[in-house]
Fold this sequence. Notes:
The chain is α/β, with parallel strands linked by helices. It has 2 domains: 12-250, 2-enoyl-CoA Hydratase, Chain A, domain 1 (Alpha-Beta Complex); 254-300, Lyase 2-enoyl-coa Hydratase, Chain  A, domain 2 (Orthogonal Bundle), CATH 1.10.12.10. 44% of the residues lie in helices and 14% in strands. It is built from 12 helices and 11 strands. The chain has helices at 67-81, 104-109, 111-114, 120-143, 159-164, 193-201, 204-213, 219-225, 235-250, 254-268, 272-286, 290-300, and strands at 12-13, 18-19, 42-48, 51-56, 88-93, 148-152, 155-157, 169-173, 177-179, 217-218, 230-232. The strands form 3 sheets. A 6-stranded mixed sheet has the order 3-4-5-6-8-11, with helices on both faces. Helix 1 packs across helix 4 and helix 10 runs antiparallel to helix 11 (272-286). The longest helix has 24 residues, at 120-143. Mean pLDDT is 87; it is low at 2-28. One of its GO terms (molecular function) is delta(3,5)-delta(2,4)-dienoyl-CoA isomerase activity. Isomerization of 3-trans,5-cis-dienoyl-CoA to 2-trans,4-trans-dienoyl-CoA. This is Delta(3,5)-Delta(2,4)-dienoyl-CoA isomerase, mitochondrial. It holds the Pfam family ECH_1.
Amino acid sequence: MRTLIYQRGVGLMRLGFLKAGYGPLSGSRSLSSDAMNKFQALEVKEAAPFVYQVSLNRPEKRNALNKTMWHEIGAVFEELAHDEDCRAIVLTGNGPMFTAGIDLNDLTSLASVVTSDDDVAKKAKVLYKTIRDYQIPFNRLEECSKPVIAAVHNACVGGGVDLITAADIRICTQDTYFQVKEVDVGLAADVGTLQRLPKVLGNQSLVRELCFTARKFPSDEAKHAGFVSQVYPDKETMLNEALSLAKEIAEKSPVAVQGTKSSLIYARDHSVEDGLEQIARWNMTMLQSKDLMTSAMAMMTKQKDPPTFSKL
């Protein structure tokens, strides 16, 4: 097992969580094998060859999303996007639940901005930047070129729903419930749920019911509605299945898998014709990759073991 290092220092960039010259800004690289236990709110480890597990790691706080965790999520997914030893990622939570949502201590810290005597224009400018800054880390998850499997147990509340709607695949345990909680604390969800959930579910009536009422959305209903693809009896079984799925994905051509993710996201937000143009331009280059010949030869020779692909 390898654990990633969370780099700190001067020259911080992008919400203060990326060190200048480190990670994707300095080109493709693999993460150091001796960089261990430096994340404050995440546990990150190599769970299998080319498969990483990212775990929310504030179990004593029910994995409440505080500012540190928020920023580390952005940092780790941007870093893994550029790690050639990563081909698939499992996102889960340590402790009794996946997440209780945003840490209320962080939320109440905004009260000082709202209740200050500053002009409304100045306060609005500060709040706008704060909201946009909080959106970026979850965008990093969606933009990560590697498939992300969200494995959820017990409860996924508020900001947790924003987080997992940015994942590629969602699975959960039988005791899981999801809850778009923001209206209960007097605000509209503003870091992704209202934008991504309608596209995930494709049922505007159900989406609006969930978002207007903040009711619990149990696992069986979530499976029926297509929000999750599988429901498992317990966390151990779920994690084993999530890692098995991730390993299966990691055995495929990284050129093919990453191209597929890129095109699926593009197609979601564009017309069919735009999507066809995008994949044509992608494949005019990628069809020349050695991965295509490697895959074809494995199929033609009925090779039993998965073919070996170059790192990407």
